[in-house]
Amino acid sequence: MVYKARSGVLLTEVCGEYILVAARSARQFCPFVTVLNESSAFIWKYLVDGASLADLESAVSEEYEIDEPVKVRSLLMDLLEKLETNGYLLRMEQGGEHEE
Amino acid sequence: MSNGIYELNLAGHTLRYAFRRVRTKYFFLPLLHRSASEGWDIKMTAEDLARARIASPPQYTEAYAEYRGLLAPTARALQAFDCCIFHAAAIVTQGGCWLLAAPSGTGKTTQYRNWLRLHPGELGIISGDMPVLELRQDGVWVHPSPWNGKERYRGFEPAKLAGVVLLRQGSENCIEFLEPRQAIPPLFGQLAALPDTEAQTRAVCRIMDGVLRSAACWQYTNRGDDDSTELLREKIRREDERRGV
Q1: Cα B139 to chain center, whole Å?
Q2: Contacts A–B by Cβ distance under 8 A
Q3: Which residues in chain B are contacts of A32 at CB distance < 8 A?
Q4: Smallest CA–CA separation between B181 and chain A, in Å?
Q5: Does A28 touch chain B (CB under 8 A)?
């Protein structure tokens, strides 16, 4: 399973805050603007090109020096679920696409 | 039917319009001028005009519908110049321009009218509804536009942005400072037209970044009465003093 950011959604910084901004092509699926915290923005950068849960777990564990796989997975799943619920994220089978 | 090409200068940038209805140009006066050019930058399609007409109250003319319908394409065209159109009453104090931002019917004009009545001659205005914000090196500047609300409150000179007050109706008068992460969603929500492309999106983000870095941003829950206006006036006066203007 690969998680991929919806195209047309930009991660950018406004006055020191990370935000997701949806251009027109994405706005029928997700809110125009959402503020992210730093760790969510860090994870988003991996989602732009698509990443598996294992890739994300590895990146987060290394970046934040967390040696608790269960905790990392739980935090990631929580974020991924929120992003998917809000229309920012697509789940794809390896080599396929998730239908809307 | 094309009725000649007209130019509108907004925040120092000239846009050329071709109107579909003869009388549309009157809603843009006195900012509009006849153009010597034969080309145009903005023209509504017949379909867009039909949609604008359907969206307008039935007593409004097609020319008025076209005038209202041209707001969004104008706002997007300005994004190429690091400008945007922002839904707010742009009032002017000694310290500069304050944007009273809120959805329609929330009390922007009420605050302006209360202030004029309670303290005549103290306040100027740039636009009663949709000023143009321009990002410059030294901050954000606020400019007039032809879209000024039903009362047509407008000025002719720009002013530097001093602050933004996001208005909400409430049973008590309470002003709170907003941190950037709190201010970002409602500020973006006041854009007159959402950006279409990535370039336009980055432009509005730059402008909002400029707003938040250079101007105070408050949320004001208020009753809309005279006391609420006096509180707002005092808060702005203190902020202007603090900034040394």
Answers
A1: 17
A2: 53
A3: 188-189, 194
A4: 6
A5: no
pLDDT tens by residue, B58-74: 899 999 999 999 999 99
Q: What ipTM was estimated for this complex?
A: 0.89
Decide if A17 touches B, using CB distance below 8 A.
Answer: yes
The answer, yes or no, to whether residue A100 has pLDDT greater than 80, is no
Look at B165 and B1; give whichever has higher pLDDT.
Answer: B165
Interface test with B, best of A9, A33, A34, A37 (most B CBs within 10 A): A33
Question: In this structure, which amino acid lies at residue B79?
Answer: Q
- pLDDT of A42-95, one tens digit each? 999 999 999 999 999 999 988 988 888 898 999 999 999 999 999 999 998 876
Q: Where are the domains of chain B?
A: 5-69, 83-242
Domain limits of chain A? 2-90
Tell me if the domain spanning A2-90 has CATH number 1.20.1050: no
Contacts of A17 (CB under 8 A, 6+ apart): A35, B180, B181, B184
Distance CA B94, CA B163 (A): 12
Contact at CB, A24 and B196, closer than 8 angstroms: yes
CB contact under 8 A, A23 and B198: yes
Residue of A nearest to B212 (CA): A15
Task: Identify the CATH number of the domain defined by range B83-242.
Answer: 3.90.228.20
pLDDT band at B2 (very low <50, low <70, confident <90, very high): very low
Contact call for residues B75 and B8 (beta carbons, < 8 A): no
- 3-class secondary structure, B230: helix
Phi, psi of B114 (to 5 degrees): -60, -45
